[in-house]
Amino acid sequence: MPARLTGALIALSLAVVPVSVARGVAPFPQRATAFANRPAIAVGVAWYPEQWPESRWDADLMMMRATGFNTVRIGEFAWSRMEPEEGRFDLAWLDRAIAAAQRHGMMVVLGTPTAAPPAWMTQQYPDVLRVDEDGTPAVHGARRHFSFSSQRYRSFSRRIAAEMARRYGHHPAVVGWQIDNEIGPPSFDGEAVAAWHRFLEKRYGTIGELNCRWATEYWSQRYNNFDQIPLRPTGQQNPALQLEFKHFTTATWTDFIQNQARAVRPLIDPRAFVTTNTMFWNAGFDHYRLHHDLDLAAWDNYIPDGRPDWVANGANHDLVRGYKQRNFWLMETQPGRVDWVPVNRALDPGQVREIAWQAVAHGADAVLYWQWRPAANGQETYHGAVLGQDGKPNPIQPEIARTATELSGAAALLSDTSPVARVAMLFSYDSRWAIDLQRHHRDFDPVRAFTDFYRPLRTKAQGVAILPVEADLSAFPLAVAPNLNVLTQAQAAGLARYVRGGGHLVLGPRSGMKDDSNALWPQRQPGPLTELLGARVEQYYALDKKVALAGSIGGGATIWAEALAPVAGNVRVLSTYRDPGGWLDGKPAIVTRKVGRGSVTYVGAWLDAATMASLADRLLSDAQVSALIPDGDADLEIAERSGGGKRLLIVINHGGMSHPFTPPAGAVPASGDWRGGAIPAHGVALFNLAPGARP
Ligand code: GLA
């Protein structure tokens, strides 16, 4: 077997993520918790009791109940309080805080405090500190100043997590566990370097294999052994090394989280979930992989500039739902504003409620605000909160209270339901990273490229599932992969099976160019799918101005254009460049080929918005995917959640003006603002649809 192929097989076995459930119990239900006697929708807030006198706790919890909250998240960041000195645990205050929450009828999510190691540890054991790429160790005083590779830190983390789990694992108020908080920054310390070498050795087996797959004859990069390979994923390093660094950070963070999950699980009620809270498109690691052994995904949805782009935010939620293809927790969202961008504008009145319902429409079974009350000092005194520094409600509180009450009121309806989508979009971390590492056009932002494809598909189909490339696509007539730059043989084979089984597959520009070591496939794009497509990319061009497109999909290409070359007889050209005097003139830009009842389409250009919209119309009609509500208004988000014999229609007016809305025949208003045939600005309406019948 040629070395290159052996490498490919090793890489495949490491890279393919089976999409299944790892816990030893039944799959997590489509409701907030697996406790049947607990609310199906969690609404709550991050509460830091350690920051306040105990004499205040009851008042706070009473006010939380009055706000309609049923959940508090406690514990994250409180390490110096829980273990004030090495090995001396003081959890009595936490016992009392959890007991107080329970007295007030709250569900509790416990966070392990490992995002904020205490001073005694960093002073006594400076080797636990994170080291920047330039070799500078982190300084105590902020957070996330630990190394994700440090075995000593792992052992301290395991100990505090187990201590908490022993104590609260079967506490009747505790419904879930959040490991750490927003993991992300990697470390470049000596242990990380050694782990990197071990990681590469395990992945490639021999240094010869690595040299071959990384093509290290280029620039005399050939390595004699794994220990020579720098942990330096930036600058002019080999893009193979840079992509492997992402695989390494994925493996290291996954193991970092599992280190605690393994300590906690045997000690807790099996119905309690174990998760971590993440940051949607964060590029640090592969989120599908990280979530594989967690019970559910949880994320922190912020609109930093206070100007929601509802379609893009919908994509954020759909991405998170795709991590496990299951409903998720919105672990944090803003009570008005954040404090970490240059201009921290507050959302308009009504928008906090609007974005909470949007999360639910996309599959959230929990909405938790960050935070209850600002600490008296620290980095976040300017952040939005439910209460002000005087302990009295901020002006946003009544809107949050209304949202919380409505969500709880709709819990019975929402329980056991999940979002409905007939269009799948495939997002691959490897592809995103590979493009980002070598954009070739500065504006080729792979997340923006993805969102540009998502936008018309979401608004026209009113439901999109974002999935890993290996997912089972059989329920989706249409699967769109905007930029599948890294495409393995196994993935290509899976996609070809989907098409042969009647699926309509659409590939966007730059697809099928690289293998999962970021090396060029020996054939032109779309590489392993060229034969199925019956066409290939002749050449690609970065554009500094728009190029016109003519044909059944006319319009314009921007940023990126590929000249396509059909090779099979039955390939149809849908669009051709008009580029007089240029390389692209007369060349096909979009081609499609029928394969049995299915089809494969290749879109070789980054299309402008109008062209993308006409393409979406055509793709949806070819795949016979119709809108739930035809001719939807641009400001109105339409979504369906169904399951357990229920079908719910959720309509959200993201605009600043009232919009007329006619519900489908048979729809029964269940809650919200629909009055007199219209939904007011930032309004929300929930309808019961007759099960089974599509309106
Ligand atoms: C993140 C963190 C929180 C808090 C918020 C502020 O989401 O998880 O601890 O810092 O940001 O927006």
From TrEMBL:
Residues 421-625 form the Beta-galactosidase trimerisation domain. Residues 47-407 form the Glycoside hydrolase family 42 N-terminal domain. It is an enzyme of class 3 (hydrolase). Its EC number is 3.2.1.23. It catalyses: Hydrolysis of terminal non-reducing beta-D-galactose residues in beta-D-galactosides. CDD domains: A4_beta-galactosidase_middle_domain (cd03143). It comes from the Bacteria. Pfam families: Glyco_hydro_42, Glyco_hydro_42M. Keywords: Glycosidase, Hydrolase, Metal-binding, Signal, Zinc. Residues 1-22 form the signal peptide. SUPFAM superfamilies: (Trans)glycosidases (SSF51445), Class I glutamine amidotransferase-like (SSF52317). InterPro entries: Beta_galactosidase_Trimer, Class_I_gatase-like, GH, Glyco_hydro_42, Glyco_hydro_42_N. Belongs to the glycosyl hydrolase 42 family. This is Beta-galactosidase.
